[in-house]
Write a structure and sequence with these properties.
31% helix, alpha/beta, 10 helices, Udp-n-acetylmuramoylalanyl-d-glutamate--2,6- Diaminopimelate Ligase, Chain: A, domain 1, five-stranded mixed β-sheet
Amino acid sequence: MVLQELTEYLESIAPIQLQESYDNSGLIVGNAAMEITGVLCSLDCTEAVVQEAMELKCNVIVSHHPILFYGLKKINGNHYVEKVLIKAIKNDIALYAIHTNLDNVLTHGVNEKIAQRIGLKNLEILKSKENQVGIGAGILGAFKKPVSSYDFFDNLKVRMQCQTIRHSAIVKPTIQRIAICGGAGSFLIQEAIAKGAELFLTADLKYHEFFEANGQIILADIGHFESEQFTIELLYGLISQKFRNFATHCTKINTNPIQYY
């Protein structure tokens, strides 16, 4: 089976045209006509992930985050991006990224996966793209009945395997309606408030952005890697259930660049 069949399938779920203007989803390294020997799914593509692919005899890495965002003027191995590209090219390993296009779909998307892990129902897009059903940024969902905000945080740490939660004031003792945006989601704070969410779960919030809670909502930041790490499982499930003529693996490499002490 050739790589193009895999990429066409992934793009039937999350079309490339749904990616944001700054993004670089799609086939970054590799020939669409190459035969697939195995696929490794990851959140990020690092040297260690490329090495793992080699050891597993996988010649395709499907990651959520693109390794290449900006133009390179030199490729001499002095920067981590250059090192990854050199290693992949030397070893005939294709690199494919499915990033904000996978963020922007409701079904089989990044945010649906988070919602499923924490038990939300009745999901809908938080901020829809114009005239497109089930397409847009973030997700809104609800629990069957209200839960204590502190109980929710305790459960969240377990379900999302996060060590810490940065949050604004607990202005809602109980919550039921939850907004979600995996990764950096500060741009959706006002939308979450407008849609009546009692808590907005996201990542990468800056100091001043926490003030935007404005006594109207609880903002909860669990970390970028932590919020999106189960995208690896999502990709594995989509690929392994569709294709049986090659092995699909989840990376065992923790690519989170942030450490906690």
